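Target chain:
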Amino acid sequence: MQVQIAEYRTRNASPPVGRTPLFSSHPNWRWFILTTVLIGAAMSALDVSIENIALPTLRNYYHVSLSLDEWVAMAYMLTLTIFLPLFGRLADMFGRTRMYNLGFVIFTIGSALCGLAPTMEFMIISRVIQATGGGLLQANSVAIITQSFPRCELGKAIGIQGAVQAISMAIGPFLGGLLIGLNLFGMQWRSIFYVNVPIGILGTIAAYYILPVDKKRTSREKMDYVGCMTFAAALLFLVLALNEGRKLGWESDTIVTYFFLSVIFFVVFVVTEKRFSCPMMDFQLYRIYDFSAGNITGFFSYYVLFGILFIMPFYLENIAHFSAFAAGAMLTPIPITMSLVAPIAGTLSDRYGPALMTSIGMFVCAAASFALIFCGRSPDITLLIVEFTALGLGMGLFTPPNNSAVMSCVPEERLGSAGGILNMMRSSGRVFGIDISGLIVTTMTAAYVGSAGYRHINFSPVPREIRENGFMRGYVAVLITFTVLNLISALLSVTKKGRTKIAVEHFLSE
């Protein structure tokens, strides 16, 4: 409680300023800091989705198999997911601004290498380098914002960041397709990577001159190498198992081995962390109500969001028989509404507290998920758009206040670690949401088709009606799962978030 009270008083004091040699005395300097952070947030979020549109082009250009082509996207995703907690920890040890600047440099170099890639293997390695820079940017962006803004403006600032990230991820495929189609200077697909280079250089210069100077640490903590390696290995094998399970079979020796190694490394990680004086992941943070609840609900929210973005195109194209273009257009209200609502939700959470906004957001998402269950095979287009808009509304109401609640309740010296864990949980939610949703649908479809007398769904001439009936069973099961997770998140938001702030305000009033 004493730590939280001290942190509360610090957050409501005047915001920290940027570099002294420039114009850091300007009363609105914190907004220049936010603008600089937004450059990195937009770049790292954009490259999560921009390359997806180029995968068929890359496969034809390099003449490689589909399994190797998929690693262009998977290498970026894996690197982000498994190293985000490490990047946050490094920021706490060596300085958030220093790590953010380094992230700009590495991301820019990685982007240039991707554009130069002579082979697919070189491309995959370059994507790992690019993701390393993106991870340093993602892990530290929320921490720098939290450090630079007073508590009364934190939700608004994080809301603006969330809006920029939502827009970046939404326009990624469109921008990638546009750049490839324009074929500027004969660069073809290479332009989707080269476009990051001038932006990265601009971001590096801005970060150096605008971001606040890192505080000088009186004591240097030791690096937990064992914890870093074991945690990264545990996440790596778990994500590999989830991604490869549908292709290789969940009972295959490879997938079983992946799950086994994941469990072993995770057990070793937990045992060693408890014995290390300066652990990579501070388990004491999980004793804070807002931190634990915020990370759990953040995981659930991304699980639902990306699960819906994954499963709905199959429903819209294969069941409702819309074109691919129409299906993509109908899903755009989700990120658009999120980007419009996020800044407003952040501002309202500053005024009324995060508990109200996050719980309302999750209840809206639960209602939207529940309504999607009853779409049927001939859905009403207007009703679908309303339901997708409601989902975007709920996510926009939830995400910025939730992030603000998580970051507001941790000590300042652990902001980097908290930001890394928060982003890791959301990234893991994206992976689990896609893979588990796909597993449920494929398993239930195969079971239904098998009950109808067809043993091999991929090779037997299964009648379309039977195949669609099987898919719809899996679709309904997935949407019920999403509804339940949203309700759990809503209840956690009501019972957990805001309790730290209320307790501190009550103590200070006495």
